Amino acid sequence: MEDLLNAFLLMSNFVFVPAIAYGSQLALGAVGVTLVYGILRFSNFAHGDTMAFGTMIVILFTWWFQSMGINLGPLPTALLALPFGIIVTAIFLLGSDKLIYRFYREQKAAPVIYLIASVGIMFVLNGVVRFIIGPNDQRFADGERFIVKAREMKQYLGTAEGVSIKVSQGLTVITAIIVVIALFWFLNKTRTGKSMRAFSDNEDLALLSGISPDKVVAVTWILVAILATVAGTLYGLDKSFKPFTYFQLLLPIFASAIVGGLGNPLGAIAGGFVIAFSEIMITYPYKKFVAYVVPGDWKPEGLVQLLATDYKFAVSFIILVLVLLFRPTGIFAGKSV
Amino acid sequence: MLINRNIVYFTIMALLLIGVGLFQSWNVSLSILNLCLISAIMALGVNIQWGYAGLFNVGIMGFAALGGLAAVLVAMPPVEGAWSAGGWGAIGGLFLAFISIALAVITYQRMSAGRTRSIIIIAICVIGFFITRAVFGPATHAIEDINPATSGYLGGFGLPIVLSWPVGGIFAGIAAWVIGKITLGLRSDYLAIATLGISEIIIAVLKHEDWMTRGVKNVIGMPRPVPYEVNLQTADWFITLSSTLGADPVGFSSIFVKICYACLFVSMLLIVLWLSETALKSPWGRMMRAIRDNEVSANAMGKNVTKRHLQVFVLGSVVVGLAGAMLTTLDGQLTPTSYQPLRFTFLIWIMVIVGGSGNNWGAVLGGFVIWFFWIEAEPLGLVLMNVITSGMAEDNSLRLHLIESAAHMRLMTMGLILLLVLRFSPRGLLPEKSS
Asked: Which of chain A's residues have a Cβ under 8 Å away from the Cβ of B409?
């Protein structure tokens, strides 16, 4: 019995807790991608770098606050800097829409043109971020590190294994829940949110009923700024901030959005967790787990790892391919094929 | 008029390269020229996909890297003992993986839908995975244990490296077929996302499958299709040649080698260009443009859009793979970490769009122009930063930061060029001829 408890604690520590945190980050990112897709009807390749940009602004404000001695005690100072990061990112996104996307909207350009334009913006953001903060790792987490420490839990339960929960992980989940609830409240209860959903369902009909497209688009970009900055900051607090990693996050984020059905925010959240859990479960070495579960003292020889951690992107890719093969609209019905 | 524009732009380009030769050095000028030629071929491949058919491929890096892999597998001498240690096990493992996938696909097609089918397919995949691992794992370990410091991989077939160019094309074509089969016919965004994914995975494989590519330890010293400088410097005919030209044999030898490469690359470029032009002018080319301009009406005329898209996607990727193998040949080494999406995927895109999508000459020109400025932008950016910050103190931290970050200016500049061209001159420097 105790072995099973240990196995469960081990899995919680190395798989469930990290996957829930990573899943929340992916979900927030994927909701941003899916919103752009639903309203503006293109896949935004600049999303990963928008996250990096927003996080960079948060980091710069965090450093400024830290230098002035402002902090939140046990919580990371970055939380205080978050609103400023969101504002700057929103200004940037609205500006880029005005300068670039709006022209193509008026022209009624093909979706692939938006895609290329978003690649151009990705390039620019990439350059801006590296220019200002450099291409290297930046750490900006401060305050307490752990909510629950593995060692204390071991002593308390008297088990061989314990679970540690980092502040950043707890914060990620709580923030994600708050943001998602607020988003759905906004989309379902407010007038602007309803007009956004109407616009996403049927653009012509929405225009006929007097919905202002400019307002809908502007609100979408502001929401994207909030989602991208929050997701990027949480990811940076949990792991670390490196511009190239954010570019690489693009693939799991797209995979999450497609698995859940592009254009469907609820699906994007589910997709984020599907991708995060599969990625971590498939690349986790089960050696210790097997040793606990199998009775007796037998231990497996290898790591019992299904796929090396280096191939974690392959996991999201394979899931993406499977979904495209069998259900191109996603697990939850998304936009048209 | 169009012919004139062609001549004017290409003359300016030639003058720029000559200018670099006169003011910097001929060595620099020729290295830029060689990479311009390879970039031009890559841009031609992307132009086949984008310009002919409107397919957005974000995985050019992956296809180019497959070309690099082909260069290693074809040209490197086989490592002694590696084949007997685990070569057959590694190949057998790959074969088993292929068989299990094929079995799963056949089951999916032959059996009627239902729970039994799903269970059988999952069983095939799981069993296949573990059998593959059991054969593959020990074999690759055995290979990697042979002299890890100098070899530790299978090596290649020791054939002339020029053979690897078509092989690289075939590798890239196979990968493109798989991706195209899955995503073409769905929304255009899916192709973009899937190619982004496959290119990341190909790079991950090159980085981590040490038994095949030595991973991050890099394969260096690959055989060359042209003579070596040291051999030239001692050859009698070469010494006579350089003395008649009045050049120093040591310096001239490296220039001579670069000229040899340039001749090879120019002939490849001409072949690919001739083939692309012929294809574009043929009925096939007209059909492709018709599909690109209006899929619905082409479909109504009885053209199988998805099938044509798959065809053109594979063809374009073959050209990219070819160029990738040529690049590795020129470098003389395979360094998986050097494959960066910004350098290999998006830069090529900018070449095509700036040059003029749909026009092969435009793609070639784009390859030359963008590569030239990509290389020359760094010294120019540094000069610019030095001028901007000249008023500041020598150890001003802002000044140091700006000068240090000048390299990142290139990304921003390229992004801006892409956005500006797309907005104000979407047809590029050499627009497609309207028939």
From this structure: 127, 131
A288-327 pLDDT, tens digit each: 888 888 877 777 777 777 888 888 888 888 888 888 888 8
d(CA A287, CA A300): 6
Distance, in Å, from the CA atom of A249 to the CA atom of A51, rounded to the nearest integer, reads 10
> Hey, are the CB atoms on B409 and A127 less than 8 Å from each other?
yes
Would you state the pLDDT for residue A83? Answer: 93
Contacts of B336 (CB under 8 A, 6+ apart): B65, B203, B206, B207, B213, B215, B216, B218
C-alpha count within 13 angstroms, C-beta hemisphere, residue B244: 5
Q: How confident is the model at residue A186 (pLDDT cuts 50, 70, 90)?
A: very high
User: Encoding tokens for residue A76?
Assistant: 């990371």
Q: What whole-number distance in Å separates Cα of residue B78 and Cα of residue A198?
A: 64
The predicted model gives A115-122 an average pLDDT of: 89
Reported confidence tier of residue A162, pLDDT bands at 50, 70, 90: confident
Domain ranges of chain A: 2-248
Nearest to B361 by CA among B421, B312, B429: B429
CB neighbour list of residue A320: distance below 8 Å, 6 or more residues apart: A251, A254, A255, A258, A259, B193, B194, B197
User: Which pair of tokens denotes residue B282?
Assistant: 């043929």
C-alpha to C-alpha distance for B30 and B11, rounded to whole angstroms: 16
On chain A, the residues whose CB falls within 8 A of the CB of B208 are 308, 310-311
| B366-405 confidence digits (pLDDT tens) | 999 999 888 887 777 777 777 777 777 766 777 777 777 7
> What is the pLDDT of chain B when averaged over all its residues?
86
Mean pLDDT of B306-317: 92
| Nearest residue in B to A336, CA atom | B187
Contacts 24+ apart (CB under 8 A), A194-200: A196/A39, A196/A220, A199/A39, A200/A38, A200/A39, A200/A263
d(CA B100, CA B133): 12
Q: What percent of chain B has pLDDT over 70?
A: 98
Looking at the predicted structure, is the pLDDT value of residue B35 above 80? yes
The CA distance from A182 to A172, in Å, is: 15
pLDDT surpassing 50 at residue A337: no
Q: Write out chain A residues lying below 8 Å of B56, CB-based.
A: 112, 115-116
In sequence order, what are the residues at sequence separation of 6 or more whose Cβ sits closer than 8 angstroms to the Cβ of residue A187? A193, A194, A196, A197, A265
3-state helix, strand, coil in chain B (%, to 5): 80, 0, 20
Integer CA distances (angstroms), A186 to A17, A179, A182, A192, A201, in order:
29, 10, 6, 8, 17
Average pLDDT, integer, range A329-337: 64
Are residues B27 and B259 in contact, defined by beta-carbon separation less than 8 angstroms?
A: no
Neighbours of B185 (CB within 10 A): 16
Mean pLDDT of chain A: 87
The upper half-sphere exposure of residue B422, i.e. CA atoms within 13 Å in the direction of its Cβ, equals 28
Which residues partner with B186 through β-bridges?
B184
Please answer yes or no on whether A119 and B353 come within 8 Å at the CB atom. Answer: no
Cα distance from N-terminal residue to C-terminal residue, chain B: 15
**Two tokens at A38?**
């639903």
| Predicted-complex ipTM score | 0.83
User: Please, are residues A227 and A28 in contact by the beta-carbon 8 Å criterion?
Assistant: yes
Q: Closest chain A residue to B406 measured between Cα atoms? A: A131
- SS3 (DSSP) at A68: helix
- Give the integer Cα–Cα distance in Å for B154 and B72: 10
**pLDDT tens across B327-358, in order?**
999 988 888 888 888 788 888 988 999 888 88
* B146: CB partners within 8 A, 6+ apart: B79, B81, B82, B85, B152
Cβ-defined contact of B419 to A100 (cutoff 8 Å):
yes
Q: What is the mean pLDDT of residues A97-126?
A: 88
Contact call for B187 and A130, based on CB within 8 A: no
